Amino acid sequence: MRIATWNINSLRARMPRLLEVIDRRKIDVVALQEIKAKPEQLDLSGLTERGFEVAAHGLNQWNGVALASRVGIREIRRELPSLPAWGEGEDAVVEARAIGAVVGETARDSRPIELWSLYVPNGRELDHPHYPYKLGWLEALRSYGEARLASSGPGEDAGKCSATLFAGDFNVAPTDADVWDMAAFEGKTHVSAPEREAIAAIENAGYVDLTRDWLDAPGTYTYWDYKGLKFAKKQGMRIDFLFGSPAVRAATTGAMIDLEERAQESTSDHAPVIVDIHL
DNA sequence: ATGGTGGATTATCCA
């Protein structure tokens, strides 16, 4: 099963590109972020013609996530537990920045995976209220991930429960090698110690970055700002990840970042990140 | 020091 995660920066603007990536890379399941649309605004015919089931979740024009699978969607989970709300008083909402689904119980793949498409809040500035919101959001993710592993003891269906995958745009570069120039990020979000500690806590809970071992580091990034020809100058950041539980990690046979796609005209500022998993 | 680009929505906001 080939699983991709892609911050697509508008699913409506980018549907032709998504279909081309799916066809060229033979993607079975894709987690999308920044779909920038409400589910009812989407024309999904290109995906359904290819045998995909789609689940989308979005509240406004800039966040919003989706999952598309052609190995089946058995069950949809619309929100992670205990995500913090953003906003004041009556306007406070739990933003649509996570959608989960259990996918992949087919003849080819003997065990299903609980897969989450995540858009971790950006944080904006270190002194902005969105920054502690981001840290709280990551802590809620860690807590859920830890509970998932703890609940899958040997007594009860351990293999099934522990096949968990958190895929998406984490808006954190976990190490200095994951940004093109640390000096350019002094005093900025995405590289601060608390953000990196929040990612490390998810790793310490038992989740593994499935791509790191398969990449040529440094300089293998997933995001390059549209501004200033950053892709041509190889000035990017690695902020898009698939974090797998031990069962998923053991079943991973390869990974790549689709730099070909990022080089196309009219594509997202993020590249698709792709892993092969054989459970 | 500012603005550089792009999307959705419509002159700003967000990334």
Per-chain topology:
Elements: E1 2-7, H1 11-25, E2 29-33, H2 45-49, E3 53-57, E4 65-69, E5 73-77, E6 98-103, E7 113-119, H3 130-150, H4 158-162, E8 164-169, H5 193-204, E9 208-209, E10 240-244, H6 246-250, E11 252-257, H7 259-262, E12 273-277
Parallel strand pairs: 1-2, 7-8
Antiparallel strand pairs: 1-12, 2-4, 3-4, 5-6, 6-7, 8-10, 9-10, 11-12
Helix pairs in contact: 3-5
This protein binds one DNA strand of 15 nucleotides through residues 9-10, 12-13, 34, 36-37, 60-63, 122, 124, 171, 225-228, 269.
Structure summarized in a few sentences:
The protein is 24% helix and 23% strand.
Which key features would you list for this structure?
279 residues; 6-stranded mixed sheet; globular; 7 helices; alpha+beta; single chain; DNA-binding
Characterise this structure.
By secondary structure, this protein is of the alpha+beta class. The chain has helices at 11-25, 45-49, 130-150, 158-162, 193-204, 246-250, 259-262; strands at residues 2-7, 29-33, 53-57, 65-69, 73-77, 98-103, 113-119, 164-169, 208-209, 240-244, 252-257, 273-277. The protein has a 6-stranded mixed beta sheet with strand order 3-4-2-1-12-11. Strands 5-6-7-8-10-9 form a 6-stranded mixed beta sheet. The longest helix is centred in the middle third of the chain and has 21 residues, at 130-150. The chain binds one DNA strand of 15 nucleotides through loops.
